[in-house]
């Protein structure tokens, strides 16, 4: 990809990531507190969070198949963003458990469909410069931080009840951002269905997906109950916001240094390092909850548990899935890891938290990462 074309594409790609993860940053840290304000218990909160993530199991695969079949990635991207806006209105029109469950299902289905489509579009646009993905993707992390700090201040100043309106507004901006990108041709190949399933069955691909499922499962407690855990230990909403922001700042550092990291180290080495540091993070959090210095250090490990693992995994996915399998490859990664793994992790987190509190919940996360380490060490490889 010529440097001039990269410079032209950079702001268009970056802006979508920025606004998409602004919405994610407004949702994940605070939606549990919003559900708690509606008097839902831990199991109900876990079920709502699990429903949001569970939609990612099927949705990306449906839209990924449509995008690859029609060659119209941007067309489907715009529709998913528009329908995300429509379903986001449910957050401001209902406060019942069943109503929110239905809202979360529709909202999550289309929200989660958009990102894999855009990831595929981004890698196609970058072509031979995919190591620069991190420089584009880091704007998503910046957007996440912007939303966390803005909404932390907003909730502290006014009320958690203002959160739904912020989510609707951000969904509208994402839809508008999809009009900054245009379709480009995708090379056509023969016998795609056969080659796609052949790729899935390869042990190094299957093991990568298994490790991805387990590491996202391990994030279930963090995404569902971390803010609640901090709130119970007397941390203010502003401090909670800054702790979330600190984790994402560390993630940004990984994306910023992605080019030299991937040139200096083997992809599998980076993947294994991320898993080991993730294990350390989940063990630390319940032990240091009342010591903000060590808690801040644990947040810095988000650079590994999310940033480094995601960068390495998506690099491998793009390597194994190409041509007309590209959108489906990104979709299967998203649905397996963030979808199946995330949904099971959040659902299990609700029951673990209800049964034994933070110790049980984070202990469960640590065990999942241990299993991921064993699988990745034995089977994951990069050819």
Present the secondary structure layout.
Elements: H1 3-37, H2 42-70, H3 73-88, H4 90-93, H5 97-126, H6 133-157, H7 163-177, H8 192-201, H9 203-218, H10 220-232, H11 237-256, H12 258-264, H13 267-287, H14 292-300, H15 302-320, H16 326-379
Largest sheet descriptor: none
How many strand elements?
0
Would you tell me the overall average pLDDT? 90
Q: So, CATH architecture?
A: Up-down Bundle
Query: CATH H level: which superfamily?
Result: MFS general substrate transporter like domains
| CATH topological fold name | Growth Hormone, Chain: A
How many separate domains? 1
Strand content: under 5%
- Count the DSSP helices: 16
Indicate the CATH class.
Answer: Mainly Alpha
Helix/strand structural class: mainly alpha
- Helix/strand order: HHHHHHHHHHHHHHHH
In angstroms, what is the radius of gyration?
20 Å
Give a verbal description of the structure.
- The chain has 383 residues and is an all-alpha fold.
- It has one domain: Up-down Bundle (Growth Hormone, Chain: A), CATH 1.20.1250.20.
- Helices cover 84% and strands 0% of the residues.
- The protein contains 16 helices and no strands.
- The two termini are 23 Å apart.
- 54% of the residues are buried.
């Amino acid at each position: 990809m010529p440097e001039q074309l990269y410079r032209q594409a950079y702001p268009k790609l970056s802006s979508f990531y920025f606004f998409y993860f602004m919405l994610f940053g407004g949702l994940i840290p605070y939606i549990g507190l919003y559900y708690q304000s509606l008097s839902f218990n831990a199991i109900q909160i876990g079920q709502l969070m699990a429903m949001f993530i569970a939609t990612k199991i099927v949705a990306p695969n449906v839209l990924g198949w449509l995008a690859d079949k029609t060659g119209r990635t941007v067309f489907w991207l715009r529709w998913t963003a528009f329908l995300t806006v429509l379903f986001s209105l449910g957050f401001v029109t209902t406060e019942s458990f069943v109503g929110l469950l239905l809202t979360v299902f529709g909202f999550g289905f289309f929200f989660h469909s958009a990102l894999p489509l855009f990831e595929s579009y981004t890698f196609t646009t970058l072509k031979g410069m995919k190591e620069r993905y991190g420089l584009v993707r880091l704007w998503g992390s910046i957007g996440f931080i912007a939303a966390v700090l803005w909404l932390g201040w907003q909730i502290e100043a006014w009320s958690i009840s203002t959160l739904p309106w912020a989510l609707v507004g951000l969904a509208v901006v994402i839809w508008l951002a999809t009009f900054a990108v245009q379709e480009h041709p995708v090379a056509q190949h023969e016998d795609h269905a056969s080659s796609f399933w052949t790729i899935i069955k390869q042990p190094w691909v299957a093991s990568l997906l298994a490790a991805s499922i387990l590491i996202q499962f391990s994030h279930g407690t963090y995404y569902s109950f971390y803010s609640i855990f901090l709130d119970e230990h007397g941390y203010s909403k502003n401090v909670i916001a800054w702790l979330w922001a600190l984790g994402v700042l560390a993630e940004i550092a990984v994306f910023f240094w992605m080019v030299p990291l991937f040139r200096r180290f083997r992809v599998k080495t980076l993947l294994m390092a991320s898993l080991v540091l993730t294990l350390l993070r989940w063990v630390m959090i319940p032990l240091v909850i009342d010591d903000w210095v060590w808690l801040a250090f644990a947040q810095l490990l988000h650079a590994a548990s999310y940033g480094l693992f995601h960068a390495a995994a998506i690099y491998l996915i793009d390597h194994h899935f190409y041509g007309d399998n590209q959108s489906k490859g990104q979709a299967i990664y998203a649905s397996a890891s963030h979808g199946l793994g995330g949904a099971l992790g959040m659902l299990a987190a609700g029951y673990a938290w209800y049964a034994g509190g933070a110790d049980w919940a984070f202990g469960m996360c640590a065990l999942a990462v241990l299993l991921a380490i064993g699988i990745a060490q034995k089977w994951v490889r990069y050819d």
